Each structure stands twice: as structure tokens, then as C-alpha cells.
Structure prediction request, 1447 residues.
Amino acid sequence: MSAGKPNMGRKLSRKSSYVFENGQIPGYVHMIRQASRTSSMVSRTTDPEPRESYGSPRVSRLWKETRQPRTPATPEPPDVDERTPLLLGKTPKKPDTRSDEEAKAESVLADLRKELEMDSHKISLDELYTRLETNPENGLSNRQAELHQSKYGMNLLTPPKETPEWIKFARNLLGGFAILMWIGAFLCFAAFAVQNATKPDAPKDYLYLGIVLASVVLISGLFSYYQEAKSSRIMDSFKKLVPQHAQVIREGSQLSVCVTELAVGDVVELTYGDRIPADIRLIESFGLKVDNSALTGESEAVARSAECTHDNPLETKNLVFFSTSAIEGTGKGIVVNVGDKTLMGRIAGLASRLESSQTPIAREMDHFVHIISSVAIFFGVLFFIISVAMGYSWLDSAVFLIGIIVANVPEGLLATVTVCLALTAKRMASKNCLVKHLEAVETLGSVSVICSDKTGTLTQNKMSMSRMWYNGKMHAVERPDDPDNEGLSKIIVGDPEFMALATVARLCSRAHFKVGQVGIPDALREVVGDATESAILKRMETLLGNVEQYRFRNKKVCEIPFNSTNKYQASVHCNKSDCGSHFLLAMKGAPEKIIEQCSTILINGETKELDEQCKAEFKAAYEELGARGERVIGFCDYRLPPEEFPEGHLFNTENPEFMSFTFRFVGLISLIDPPRVNVPNAVRTCRSAGIKVVMVTGDHPLTAKAIARQVGIISPGNKTLDELAATQGVPVSDLDPSQVKVAVIHGSELIDMDEEELDAIIRNFDELVFARTSPQQKLQIVEGFQRQGTCVAVTGDGVNDSPALKKADIGISMGITGSDVSKEAADMILLDDNFASIVTGVEEGRLIFDNLKKCVFYTLTDNISELTPFFLFILARIPLPLGTISILCIDLGTDVVPAVSLAYEKGESDIMRRSPRNPLKDNLVTKQLISYAYGQIGMIESFAGMLTYFVIMSENGFLPLKLLGLRSQWDAQQINDLEDSFGQEWTYEQRKRLENTCSAAYFVSIVVCQWANLIISKTRRVSIFKKGMTNWVLNFALIFETALACVLIYTPGMDVALKMMPLRVHWWLPALPFAILIFVYDEIRRLIIRKFPGSWVEEEFYY
Amino acid sequence: MDEGHLKQKLAPTQKPKKEDGFKEFLYNPETGAVLGRTGMSWLLIFIFYIIFYIALAAFSLLNFYLFYLTISVDAPKWTMDSSLIGTNPGVGFRPRPDQEDSTDSTLIWFKQQDPNDFKFWSKQLEEFIEKIEEIQKDAGDDKTHSCTLGTENTTNRNKSCIVDLKQLGPCTKENDFGYGQGKPCFIIKLNKIYGWKPEAYGYKDTKSEFNQELFERDMKREQGKGMPEDLARHIKQEVDKLDRKRDALLLRRHLETVWISCLGENVADMENVGEILYYPMQGIPSYYFPYMNQKGYQPPFIMVQFTNPVHGVLINVECKAFAKNVISERIARVGQTHFELLID
Prediction:
């Protein structure tokens, strides 16, 4: 037990073997598909286990009744080989069109989804030796080892196939709007080539434009590639878990072998402190204890021996698993599985092979890109056809197409969205939510179900004493004011009854504080020992102080260590008493074992006969604590009679004579891993935000249920079917399952369910707790929720959570306690391990979705004002009012900072009081948004731009009517004397200067309108006068946008570089009335939406 | 146990509807919606947008009307350097190739023998002249008057100078503008720029006296920039004819002429182009300036005739205008023009 084993003591388990399990089915028995699928739950009710105490067997039985009877009707023999895969629906039965490789990959995945099946632990050792061609004394021969290596593979985890970098890069260069942009760039180059071929000194405009377009695609492609490049390094952390060397017996001699060279059949020696190098069947064990936390998430050290104690490989004591660690003792075993075949290998393989689904925001962006691309292609093709039909040349038509594409595609938007997400990610990181993939920022906002692991996430992952029962009364150890502890007595230090219990608790314990921790508060001092004993030790230290000294004064002279058959632990201490006894026996263990050993009980300071009434009281107290899911330990003491045990008596540990006595019962102590302080609040917030919180834990159903109640996952007053039956005093079968909203589902029940049954449970219960679940089942549950169309968040910290974390829409791991593997599989890491941080995440996620919507609205609006000039250019044949370069100046210049600044907007209303968005209906880009942005605000901007255009044309001599139909002459280079409305004659160059000035003015008028648009984008519902202008980033953006526009048009040389011309000051003005119009119009729209909810206006124009 | 109720409760509810695709979007038989909207919905949104656009257009028109009040119908709001047209006029030529064929071709290509072919070109000149005739007819005598260099006050808003169409030599409609004889005429004209008038060589500004030294310098500079020797000589001769003191006003007026010269672009072109004649003179006299959008203003022009161009060879011709304030730029194509001639 040292710091060298990071997983040690990380998790606490209820499953301490000496502790009464409250009659529950042990651990992972049901993780593998047992016996026959047809042995219905009805037959299970005959199990000796008191299953009524948690709600679900009955429920799932009912499901069985409602569906088609299974065939065959007769129970199948409990043959391991007959097990069917867990997820029947997932077994690939796809058409043969797929390549063999794909089919193979899929079948591997399907196989990994099944629970581990093996019999190496069950067969006799001789059979095993024969099968693996090995020998316990001499081990494998070197030749055999090589043979086995080639037969079973090396002891390595194969990394998943990675997509080559260049493919990833290519995807980024072709995703989103890139294809359209490439088409645009290609058309530009083509146009230039054609021009260049016909005339030697053709203008290079199209060449430049093509280069600009191509660079835009390249740069944004690089940008998103860079974002993506921080890809999952999941296998690396598995590699880190692999131990370096193992002690192996080969050809009769022991040698140290690199772990990767370990072969199936090798005889391996295990010592405490080792990482287990492979899956090994033990043939010898000297007090070997292993920490399986890496696999199960429960870090209680479990003893391992050479006997096969269970059919289930996870339960049996003679198997130790790859990458878990040996904590105590030594052992020797035969390697039965290596590399990917090991249990850990399978989980790793599953986690890394699962494809995490597309994030909601990515889906929304795709949706959005689809819509915009469709619009662009529609308009592009339409106008191509129109212009060809109108008699324009192919080259002209292609040039129009370029313009339409450039105008339609919001070039800067995807990068803007990325920046917005990055800003939020940064903000979240400062609130202890570290986001690994930017898109996950929003995902949390879309989440409608959170599947939370219990230990370490909802709870503190730290056992602590909860209650003490002595003197016939229940005492609360902590927080006596807590409503949960109402009606309990307070502990009074000094009470003889308390002191008797405390004495035993202090003495009969192997836990001790680490040395050299002076001046550290008790709660923070590090303890060496198992979780239960440590918790008691710490509590005793705070209550009484100086436990170590007390122990020193009452020296231990004899000890009977705990073993799983006895289920108790006893020690004898030097402790002189008034009655002359020299020794005190202190004993603790499973309460029912302890009570069996007792004949008396300490009540009111007197030792009394343990009569039936006392026993009944004990039973009631014990059951009460058990029902709370707490770990209960019984304590008793006994003064050894001085006659038989004089001072200096030497005890025989092997055969302790004192065990023939009956002892005095002093009390019970119950322990629990308490919920974190702010979790109940966080759960409440989640629920008011419409998010369902579901507990999915590997822990015991009772504990799970108790914690679920305490944190509010099960609301007070809601009962499971079994509880309802108990209170009404009727059998469970008489109740209608639809009456209850709560269910606690045991992993063993999940095994018997098919997809539909699981779906039915998920749909029909509001409050769900899944207990005793395996990694595969966690995955299954997540998939069940996803089938309902919900967006699922999974929180967890163990390796066993990693497949579910990976599969979830957003996996959330714990920064402090989380295993590396789970961190790798997760999308988000809570740096403070605090579930409450999730609430922050949800809030930020929802806010960013709202703000992205505003951002998209803002950016899309000027698309239409960029498009109208082209329409008029083609249809009304006027000189081009807005050049392609100017469009790029808007999309990639002035629009960017304002759009990003919208990410800093605060929420409009309490976003944590509304339901999560419906991924099917509440899209980022809706019909309403397009209609309002394109049809209305965009059109107002277009009119503003066109007005400015006509004003400048008129002031320079071309009145609007003159312009109609002027295009072909205007653009003809040969015409050097085009007459305007006042008879002036313009050369081609002079006309182009005028045209560029108009283009710059149109650009400016869009900027002016975008001022108003930015302000109206701040709010979708409330008035801007209520919202205020306190977003200083946005205010800065207004100024910045204007300044940038000035730089673009007034900097000398811009007429050549960007075809921008300086403008007279008053040419900024024509757009102003339109900007005011936009502001007023939107204020009115919002007023109507607020005053008449559900009205036609809201239906059509609320985006 | 209520079996029926249970079944209802636990029967697998409808899975979230997958997008039934495009078909349903086009026509949804359930709601009768076409393209995602019902008839009523389409009607409402249609009416809304009609009203919206009418209102928006009205708003814009109101704005434009208010703006329109600020500009004059007679003169552009901005002129010369305030306007984007600037003060450097371009040079135009007629006839021009068919725009529909190619927007940037300047090739004049005709068959001397085929009247139907050269008619395309000569017709343009004919139309140009007819247009001037029309202006003359419309304007009437009170708006126009014949001008000479000596005429006082030649330029004002009410009267403009007549372009004499009788002094065009052989470049007449009857003569097919020389196209049938292989001696084609071209119209060369200076772009009208409101308020622009040429500045004379040898004068520092409009107020100052003639300065021989400055004149020589100006001429030298122009020659350096491509004024042909014979034009320079021609101008000097014209100047020498006049007495510096007595004819001071006349001299200034005369020197305010915008001189025009056409030449082959390269040495070969110069040879091929042959003799060039100008009608009525090798420049546009000053009395046509400035252009002030006068009623009945007739755009002044000259006829340039190539009397013996080489047939079957492409000839590059460059015509330049010369005045002190005309700066010839080939790229920007101001102060000069260019065309190609090919006679079959």
C-alpha cells in the first residue's frame, strides 16, 4: 500500500466480504448471461434473496408478459456456450455489399459488446495444463512460449486503425462550404484561362479572386484540421497501464520477462505491488489481495485464492485480471489470456472501437450547411440558366455563378462558430469544466439525460461513518440537524455505552495513520488501511483523539485476521480492568455473525442478557441501516477471565481458545460513501432544466437507491413498485406498474432484456437507477436512451465507464479521481470532480446555442444583400453594384468580430428553467430564421445598398433609368465614350472607378445596416431597452467594424488591392434610415411576439 | 391486473420519427402541406411578403425622392475632379465593331468590294451624322449658331456651336465614307466632360499672356510624349500666322484647340496606314468647349481618312488628343484611342 499504486483506495466498495451483504446477490454474478434466457423472472422470485427491497424484478417480469412468448419454451440447459450475445439487434446481419474488412470489424465490435465468457477458471488444473501445454513447476519451454505467442498473439493491446492524417486533412478541405468554394475558385481560374487565351493582356481579376477563394478554403480547412488534430489518444493510456516486467517460470527456471512477451500458459509469480501482467488463473495464493478498481470502479481490495468459487469469471476468486494490481500477499498462476483477449483488453477495445456519434452542434452545422448550400446551388443554377437564356455568354454566366456562390456562402461563419465555441470552452475551463472537443461545449446544453456514475461523482468516494447504534438507540454521527437524521440521538462522548463501542472500534482495527503527518486536520490525514477501518479510525480520532496512543497503551497481544468464512476479525489487547482481567477481546464483523457470538448486551451501562427483545431491536436497527444501503458492522467485546488468561499469557493464534466464549454486544456502526454536498442542488437544477438524471452504477442496488434518494434522483415520496407493495401490504403482482415512476434496475435483469424492453423501461419511468451494471451494460443503457432520440451525457471515472463515456453524446470524466482511460474516452473533464460543475456546463452550452443562433442570424442576413446586386445585375442589366471582393470584405472582414461578440451575450431569460431543446425541432437554423433573415432584414439591407448605389450613380451623372439595361455597354472595354444622363462621356476606366466607388458604398451601407442588425441580434424576444447594451465586446465590435470599414475604403492603395474607393462622408448616410428601420421593425416584431404568444407572427418570425 | 391498460402503457411508443424525406416535404398528404406549408399558410405568408415589399419599396422610393430633390436635372451634382469622371477626357471613334460579337474587340474589318459588308461600318457613321443633324433640327436657330475662333462669348448655357457637316471632304454618306474605295473615314471625337475645356500651350494659366518660351517647352514635352513631328510643325505654323499682340485673343482661342493625330502604332503600321487626312481640321476648335449640357449641343468630331491603306494587312491605329490638360494614357485609355483596321 503505497503511493506507487495510484488506483489504491480510490474507490470504496460496499462489497467488503466480511460485511453483511443484506442478502443481496453478490457482485457481478449476473453480469454474464446466465443459465437460460427463458428461465423467467418468475422462477427467479424463488431465489433466496429478498429482492422485494428494490423495485424492479417485478417490473421486468411484466414486460415479459406483454411480449411474444419466447421460443423455445423449455429452459435451455445452463450451458455457457449457449449464451447469446447481449445485444441481439447489434449482431451484424447486414447485406453482403460491405467489404469483408468492414464486416470483420463489426463482428469484432459485436463480440466485444458481449460479456466475458471463459471456462479456464472452472476446469480442473490438470485439464488446464493439458490445454495450455504447460506445467506448474517448469512452466513453458521457450519453444512453446514462442508457439503460443504466435498462436494467441503478443501480450499487447492493438491500437485501433487510425485514419491517415492526409485523409483527415482532405476531409477538412472538402467539408462544409468547401466544395462550393472550390467550385467558385475553379470557375475563377477557368474564367481567367479563357480570358487569357483570347487576349494576351487580360485583367488578372479572376486569377486573384480564384486565389483568394482557394486560400480561404485552405486556411479554414487548416483551422478545423488543427482543431481536430487533438484527437483521442485513448490507446496510449492503456499502454501506460501495461506493467514492464513479470516473473515467469520457463523451462524450470524463474526469469524476468518483458510483459509483452508473456505467452498463454506461462507460469507467473505475483507479488504485492505488482501490476497483474495478464489474465491469470491462480494456482497458489498466500493472502493475495488485488485491487480491481481499474475494471470495476470499486477499489476495495479483494482476496484471491486458488479455488474456483464462481462460474462467473469476474466473481471467481481464482482469476486475476490484466492491469489490476496486487496489493497484499503473493501468488502464482497460469496465464490464460493475453493482450486484446484479456478483460481489460476487451473494454479498451470496445471503448476505442465505438464510434462516438456526431455532436448535436455538428449535426446542426451540417443541417445549416445543407440549407445554405442548397440555396446557393439553387440560385446559382437558376441564374446560370437564366443568364444563358438571356443570351449572356458562357463565360459571363460562369462569372455570375461565381458571384452568386461567393455571395451565398458565409465564408467566415464556420470559423466564427469555432471561435465562439472556443471562447465558451475557455470560459468553462475557468469554471472547472475542461472541454476536450470544442463541439462538446454545446452538447452539454442539448443534453436531456445525464447518466451518472455514483461513486466518486455523486458521492465523495470516501467512506465515512454515518450512524452508530448502541444502548438500544440510533445515533447520528454527523450533521445532527440534517432532516435525514431527524429523531436520532446525539452522540455524547463519555457515555459508557459509547465508550465501550469506541474502545472496540479503536482497538480492533488494522488501519493506522501514515507517519509524519503532524498538524494536518484529521479529516485530511492519510490513512493506511481498508476504507471501512480508515473511516472509523478517522472518526474516532476526531471524536476522541489520540487513537494511536490509546492503542499503544492497550497493546495488541493476539489477532485473528479477517477471513471470508468467519466474516469477523478479533484481537486481544492488554487492558487491565477493575475486575482483574488483564485482557480485553475486541471483535468486529458482519453483524449477524457477531450477534451469534454474543450472549449479553450493554444497555444503560449494564451488561444484560441478550434476550429476544434485544435481538428484535438489533434486527430492526440492522435492517433499517441495511435499507439505507449502508455498510453495517457489528462490534462486541469480552473481558477474558483472569483465571484462564493470567498476565503474560501467550495466545495461540492458530487455534484461539477464547473463541469458545460468548461475548458482549456493544453496538453497530454503519458507514456510507456520502453524497457530495452540492450534488442535491445540482440534481434539482438539472431537473428544473428538464434534464433527467439517471444513476448507472456498478454498486449495490440498495446503496444506489439510498444515494439516489439523498441526492434527489429519486424524489421524496416516490416509491418503487416493491416499496408500494410493502406499504399497501399487497403482493407486487397486484399492482399496476404504471402507477410508479421509479425503478431500480439490477444488472442481472438487464441481461434478460432485449432492446425493446429496455426502451420501454426508459420511456415509462421518470426516475431510474441502474445498479450492478457491467461496462457493457452501461453502454447498453446509453444506447437505449439514444434510441429514444435523447442526447445523453455520461459521467464516470472508472475504466468500466469508458465505453459508455465514449458512446455518450458527451462523456464527462473526473479530473482528480478519473482514470486516464476514462479521461481519454470523455469529451469533457470536470477538474474539481464536482457534479455541480455539470450545471455550469449545461448553462454555458445552452447559452452558446442561443448565441450561435444569433451569430448565424447576424451573418446570414447580409447574404441576401450580397445576392440582390447580382440579381439586378443579371435581370435589370445594371452595372454591378457590389463586387465579389467587397463581399469577401464583409464576410471575412467586418462581419467577423461582431459575430464573435455575440458569443458574449448573456441569456435573455433563465435558460435553466426551460426544457432542453428538441433536437428534431429546435434547430440552429430554422425556417423562421431563414425567412426573417433573408426575406425581411436582408431585404431591407438590400434596399439600403441599392439606394446608396443609385444615389452615387445619380450624383455622378447616371440617373437610375439610364442604368437599366446599361450593363453590356458599361462592361464593354471597347466603348470608351459611354454617355451618362447629362451627356458626359465616360471611358471604361472612369466607369470602373465609379462602379468600384458604388461597390464600396454598397459595402458601407451594409456595414451601417449591420450596426442595427447586430443590435437586434442581441435579443430574440425581449426589448433591447430592457436588455441593455452592456455587452462591451459587442459595443467594441460596432466600433471595430466601422473602423475596419474605414481602413478598407480610405487607405491609399485599396483601389488597386481591393477595388475599394474612398467615399464622400455623406455617402454613408443613405443607409441610415434603413438601419433605423431595421431597429424599429425588429423592436415591433419582438413586441408582438411578447404580447401575443402563439400568434402568427411568433409562429412565422420567431427564430 | 389491468392487462389492457398495461399493454397500452408499455407498448413500445412511436420511435422519434425519422425524416421521411423529401417526398413528405414536397407533399404531406396528412396535412395537405405543399413544401412544408398548407395552402392557407402559403397564402398568409405570401400576402405578408407582398405588403412588406410594397411598404419597403415605398420607403425606399420616399428616400430616393428626398435625395432626388438635392440634385439638378441639368447638371451632374459633381463635375470634373469632384466627379469620378475626372478631367482627362477619353477619345472615341466610329464605327465600332459589333458589341454582341465581342465586348472588347476594336477590329474594323471590311471587304471593299462588298457593299453589304462595308455597309455595316459606313452605316454607323451615317447614323452618327444623322443624329447630329437631328439635334441641329430640334434645337433650331435660336439655340445654335455657327462659331469661329473670333466669335465672342461662344460658350454659354443657351447657345451652342454648330458642327458644320458640310466640310467633311470626301467623308460623306454619298461617298459611302470612302469605304467602297478602300479609303475609309473614321470619326474621332473627344469625350464630353461637363465643364471641361482645353488649356492652351504656351500659357501659364487662363489669365496670363502667351509665352513663347513656355510654348516651346510645352511642344517639346508633347513631342516627347508622342506628338508627331508634322502635328507639332502644323501647330507652330498656325501660331506663327498670328500676330502675338494684335491677335492675342485669337491666338489663345486657336491654341485652345484639342489637336488630334492618328498614326500607325508601330513602324510597320505607320507604313501600312499610308496617308492620313483630317476633315475639317486636325483638331477640335475651342469654341465647342466647355460642354455644359447645353440645349442643342452637338458633339464635335473630326473625320480621319486613310487614303491608301495597305489591303489584307492588319493595321494598328492609334489616335491621340493633344492639349495641355490632356494626358494620354494607353492603359487607362484616356486622351487616346486605338483600333485595328483590316481591309480585304
Q: What stands out?
A: The first strand of chain A starts at residue 245 and ends at 250. The CA atoms of residues 64 and 591 of chain A lie 38 Å apart. The radius of gyration of chain A is 37 Å. The mean pLDDT of chain A is 80.
